[in-house]
Amino acid sequence: MLCPVYDFPFGTSSTESKVKQIEIAAKYDTVKEVDIVANFGMIRSGKWDDVLDGIEAGADFVKTSTGFLTGHEAHGATPEIIKAMMEECGNKIKIKGSGCIRTREHFLMLIDMGIDRMGIGYRSVPVVLGLN
């Protein structure tokens, strides 16, 4: 199953553009879900109504940062961040860990914590899955 990520890294496309991107992805049988990046600038500004409008609120998952932000220490799906998300979200929504998952041990630890999905960079997939 493929899960394309749309509007990476800052989520600044219009809602109409995001909808068009999703319509294109929906044409492929292998795509069963999509990952839409929320508008980072609006999140930082506290414009939550605009954030929800831009991603058509009603999502099945929330996810950690990808760790893409340059010039800062990348954290991504640390156990501490996953724990905080689980405490905040409870059973209301599923959690996707993404970013900085580069070892098999980290991957298995997140599975043991109970997250529902993971986003792993293509270069880390063989290591994480023990294929190297």
Explain briefly what this protein structure is.
With 132 residues, the protein is an alpha/beta fold. The protein has six helices and five strands, in the order βαβααβαβαβα.
Question: How would you describe the overall organization of this protein?
Answer:
Helices cover 37% and strands 11% of the residues. A three-stranded parallel sheet has the order 3-4-5, with helices on one face. It has a two-stranded parallel sheet with strand order 1-2. It is globular and about 40 Å long. By secondary structure, the protein is an alpha/beta fold. β3, α4 and β4 form a beta-alpha-beta unit. The mean pLDDT is 87.
Q: What are the salient characteristics of this protein?
A:
132 residues; single chain; two-stranded parallel ribbon; 6 helices; alpha/beta; 11% strand
Per-chain topology:
Blueprint: E1 5-6, H1 15-25, E2 35-36, H2 40-45, H3 48-54, E3 61-63, H4 79-89, E4 94-98, H5 104-113, E5 117-119, H6 125-128
Parallel strand pairs: 1-2, 3-4, 4-5
**Radius of gyration (Å):** 15 Å
How many helix segments?
6
First-to-last CA distance? 22 Å
Biggest sheet layout: 3 strands, parallel
How many β-strand runs?
A: 5
